[in-house]
Write a structure and sequence with these properties.
By secondary structure, the chain is α/β, with parallel strands linked by helices. Helix 4 links the parallel strand 5 and strand 6. The protein starts with 10 loop residues before the first strand and ends with a strand. A six-stranded parallel beta sheet has the order 3-2-1-4-5-6, with helices on both faces. It has four helices and six strands, in the order E-H-E-E-H-E-H-E-H-E.
Length: 188
């Protein structure tokens, strides 16, 4: 873990989809997905101490979401709102003032990024945020989309690599390179 706090008051930490269904035992578990929790808890504490904004995104799907296999999507049912699988991992220490961003809330729309139709870009700009720091699940899907959208929105974007895990290791390596090529700073 880092010893010097790199976060500043005009930064935002974005914790992507650290939900029970994406952790071991969940319906769409990422291998070792729960191992991001202690790393993210460290970064949450750094953000709290520095005064940086803390954002946590979550899939918050209706039971008939288009991404589910029974509707022709690629995934088993997951993160169905108001179910235990949609809850944040119980060891994730999100402070009360953390901004929760729900995505994938419409049955006929897929939203991988924490920025996709959530109003988060405008909210961060109003708060004076210049840099974002991103970690969570899964590196090759929702973290990737959030990082790329953050870059497109003009934020200096840092990926906290130790705080992510991919669904697929090969895809994880490819998307890591893709995010770096796009301009993301990869932090260990």
């Amino acid at each position: 873990m880092i010893s010097v706090n790199p976060l500043q008051p005009d930064d935002a930490l974005i914790v992507v989809d650290v939900q029970n269904d994406f952790c071991p035992g969940g319906s769409l578990a990422v291998e070792q997905g729960d191992r991001v929790v202690p790393v993210l808890n460290h970064w949450i504490e750094l953000a709290r101490k520095s005064g940086a904004m803390i954002v946590a995104s979550r899939d918050w799907h209706p039971p008939n979401h288009m991404s589910f296999q029974r509707r022709g999507g690629p995934w088993p049912p997951h993160a169905v709102r108001n179910t235990p699988g949609a809850a944040f991992h119980p060891s994730l220490r999100l402070p009360e003032q953390a901004r929760i961003v729900d995505k994938g809330t419409h049955p006929d729309e897929e939203n991988y990024s924490a920025f996709d139709r959530t109003g988060l870009v405008d909210e961060l700009r109003r708060a004076g945020v210049r840099r974002i720091w991103v970690g969570g699940l899964a590196q090759d899907i929702c973290v990737r989309a959030t990082v790329l959208d953050g870059l497109e929105a003009g934020f200096e974007t840092h990926l906290i690599h130790a705080a992510t895990r991919p669904v697929d290791r090969q895809d994880g390596s490819r998307t890591l390179e893709e995010m770096q090529r796009a301009g993301a700073v990869v932090e260990s």
